[in-house]
């Protein structure tokens, strides 16, 4: 991507949110680093503590434990404290289904539903520390169930509804979940996603599952196994109206969320309660400056971290009104999202560069048909935003009135790390740069040896201090946790992204420095894809590379060598595509499958990924002197050329 700098001086924009001098940010930022204890002590008051904490931070590298000794419950933050206040009749959620169904859910409705679902979970034997896998579409029950899990002290493990049976089984087994919560189905572009059926296949190999709790959403017939499956609506009839929230330690786990790393197996990122909650709320306030009048819309699915933090926890804990939409952005028409902004008067809109680029393709006439004048703030997440997409977004959606918070962060960081923060002050934005670190975040750009680089040089980003949102660790993976994040630059957290700091101190996040790719903002690793591919009976060896894609950011390009006696054909390609989708999920759909005789390898037998990437991208190959066998490079290239 281009890092060409272009300044937008938002300071002079007629936006009521821009009135603080830069000094306010600098003072707040400096105080967060010079006296973190005092800083976080003050900022922990966004949450209501049942028992006050004793110590702000226990830092035993690489483990950070925040607000030690404190007790609280996250469902209490998101529900009880609002339902007991003037906010009880305030709208918590405007929900809109893909088929046009709508629900307006107040904080007292939310309170009632969360309590009833907590009672159902309890009656099914779910209690403190139990793991509950959640495989749901974007319906209000997604929120009820997550908060009901918090309420009884259970740890939720959400799996995005595009993942396959095999992916569910792997995550259920790694987490040791006792229960799966799913729905009969969901809607996606006019079709029914058969969620219950996908779960049925998964539970054939999940010995720890005692119950599958099924929410009737789509009306189609589903098969219920009387030994395990229970309908939510049956149990809700006798549910208690109130379940006392379990007092959790601040350092107790809140959830596990699996995400891709460099190994073939996704890692269970484990987040805690108090530190995560404090981080979620403060980061949302800093980056988007919400008020009680705001209508917030984060378009992410709760299946990803963005949905966890900025659909469920932060907006609800802050008592905001938000929009949740079930379906695809372009269904039934490509202006569905603009229609929703218009209908609900959305004021803060947070989405991904992939979505923006998709809309750009359809032209500026579509958003122009709708009244978007309620918008005050825009946001972007998931991948670097290219300056063209930034400008289009700024002009056609924000009508040059709304700052864009380009939020850089990760599943592991719990919340935003580097982003413009209109909630603190204003400063000129640069399209394509996530700008400056949030309070408490101490980033440096370093070379491979960990030496801090001068301005304008590209290297790795590293974070020198723990912050409240940092994960507790990897579930079942202490060694992996140390190795993945802390071994490269000892004592510093290593996110795995390339970055550059310009002469104004602005950070540019330039994509992953490892074998993780982001397809439409969704994180997946080449190792995971390769592992799935070699599980197919026709495949001898596989290697996966990515190629920049105009809309999706990156696209998957697969190189395979076939087993003896298997003929390369369009049919095998179709089979492999199908195989990847059923082994991992729809996000694993390859853009291109290239058959080769041999994979290019180094003398020590390692696949030359740089070279495959070059082939997939048609760029000069560079130094190939460490290749084992030159001919295979040419073969790969020839095969690629044939496809063009
Ligand atoms: C929140 C989320 C994390 C990776 C991260 C980076 C990329 C996310 C970005 C961005 C540039 C942004 N990323 N936001 N890159 N600018 N604003 O996406 O979490 O799915 O764990 O992915 O996404 O490469 O390392 P996750």
Automatic annotation (TrEMBL):
UniProt superkingdom: Bacteria
Domain (AMP-dependent synthetase/ligase) ranges: 80-475
Residues spanning the signal sequence: none
PROSITE patterns associated with the record: AMP_BINDING
One function term, GO molecular function aspect: acetate-CoA ligase activity
GO biological process: acetyl-CoA biosynthetic process from acetate
Annotated CDD domains: ACS (cd05966)
UniProt keyword list: Acetylation, ATP-binding, Ligase, Nucleotide-binding
Residue ranges of domain AMP-binding enzyme C-terminal in the record: 528-606
EC number: 6.2.1.1
Stretches assigned to the Acetyl-coenzyme A synthetase N-terminal domain: 25-78
Pfam families named in the record: ACAS_N, AMP-binding, AMP-binding_C
Family classification: Belongs to the ATP-dependent AMP-binding enzyme family.
PANTHER family per the UniProt record, alphabetical: ACETYL-COENZYME A SYNTHETASE (PTHR24095), ACETYL-COENZYME A SYNTHETASE 1 (PTHR24095:SF14)
Entry-linked NCBIfam families: Ac_CoA_lig_AcsA, PRK00174.1
Protein name stated in the entry: Acetate--CoA ligase
Organism encoding this protein: Dehalococcoides mccartyi (strain CBDB1)
Upper lineage: Bacteria, Bacillati, Chloroflexota, Dehalococcoidia, Dehalococcoidales
Name of the gene encoding the protein in the UniProt record: acs
């Amino acid at each position: 991507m281009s890092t060409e700098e272009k300044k937008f001086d938002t300071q002079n924009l007629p936006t009521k949110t821009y009135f603080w001098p830069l000094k306010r940010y600098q003072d707040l930022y400096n105080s967060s680093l010079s006296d973190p204890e005092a800083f976080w002590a003050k900022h922990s008051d966004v949450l209501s503590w049942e028992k006050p904490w004793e110590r702000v931070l226990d830092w035993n590298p690489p483990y950070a434990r925040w607000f030690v000794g404190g007790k609280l419950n996250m469902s209490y933050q998101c529900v009880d404290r609002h339902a007991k206040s003037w906010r009880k009749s305030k709208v918590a959620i405007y929900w809109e289904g893909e088929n046009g169904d709508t629900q307006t859910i107040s904080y007292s409705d939310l309170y009632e539903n969360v309590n009833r679902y907590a009672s159902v979970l309890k009656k099914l034997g779910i209690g403190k520390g139990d793991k509950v896998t959640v495989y749901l579409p974007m319906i209000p029950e997604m929120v009820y169930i997550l908060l009901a899990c918090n309420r009884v002290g259970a740890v939720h493990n959400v799996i995005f509804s595009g993942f396959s049976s095999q992916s569910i089984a792997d995550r259920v087994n790694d987490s040791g979940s006792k229960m799966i919560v799913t729905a009969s189905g969901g809607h996606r572009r006019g079709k029914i996603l058969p969620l219950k059926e996908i779960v049925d296949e998964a539970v054939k190999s999940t010995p720890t599952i005692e119950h599958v709790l099924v929410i009737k959403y789509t009306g189609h017939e589903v098969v219920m196994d009387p030994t395990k499956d229970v309908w939510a609506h049956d149990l809700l009839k006798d549910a208690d109206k109130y379940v006392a929230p379990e007092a959790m330690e601040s350092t107790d786990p809140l959830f596990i969320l699996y995400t891709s790393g460099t190994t073939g197996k996704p890692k269970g990122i484990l987040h805690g309660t108090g530190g995560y909650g404090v981080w979620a709320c403060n980061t949302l306030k800093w980056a988007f400056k919400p008020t009680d009048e705001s209508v917030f819309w984060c378009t992410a699915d709760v299946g990803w971290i963005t949905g966890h933090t900025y659909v469920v926890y932060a907006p609800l804990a802050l008592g905001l009104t938000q929009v949740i939409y079930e379906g695809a952005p372009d269904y039934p028409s490509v202006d569905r999202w603009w229609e929703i902004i218009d209908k609900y008067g959305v004021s803060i809109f947070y989405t991904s560069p992939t979505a923006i680029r998709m809309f750009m393709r359809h032209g500026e006439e579509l958003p122009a048909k709708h009244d978007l004048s309620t918008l005050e703030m825009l946001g972007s997440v998931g991948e670097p935003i290219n300056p063209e997409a930034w400008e289009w977004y700024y002009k056609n959606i924000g009508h040059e009135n709304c700052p864009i918070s380009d939020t850089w962060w990760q599943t592991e960081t719990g919340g935003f790390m580097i982003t413009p923060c209109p909630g603190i002050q204003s400063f000129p934005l640069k399209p394509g740069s996530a700008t400056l670190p949030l309070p408490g975040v101490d980033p440096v750009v370093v070379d491979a040896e960990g030496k801090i680089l001068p301005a304008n040089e590209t290297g790795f980003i590293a974070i020198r201090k723990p912050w409240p949102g940092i994960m507790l660790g990897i579930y079942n993976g202490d060694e992996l946790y140390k190795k993945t994040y802390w071994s490269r630059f000892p004592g510093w957290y290593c996110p795995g992204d390339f970055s550059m700091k310009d002469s104004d101190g602005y950070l540019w996040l330039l994509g992953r420095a490892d074998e993780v790719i982001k397809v439409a903002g969704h994180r997946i690793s080449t190792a995971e894809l390769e592992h799935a591919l070699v599980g197919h009976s026709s495949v001898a060896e596989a290697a996966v590379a990515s190629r920049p894609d105009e809309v999706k950011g990156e696209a998957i390009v697969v190189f395979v060598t076939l087993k003896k006696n298997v003929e390369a054909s369009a049919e095998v390609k179709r089979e492999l595509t199908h195989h990847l989708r059923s082994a991992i999920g729809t996000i694993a759909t390859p853009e291109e499958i290239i058959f080769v005789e041999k994979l290019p390898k180094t003398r020590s037998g390692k696949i030359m990924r740089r070279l495959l990437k070059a082939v997939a991208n048609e760029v000069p190959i560079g130094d190939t002197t460490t290749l084992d066998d030159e001919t295979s490079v040419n073969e790969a290239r020839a095969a690629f050329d044939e496809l063009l």
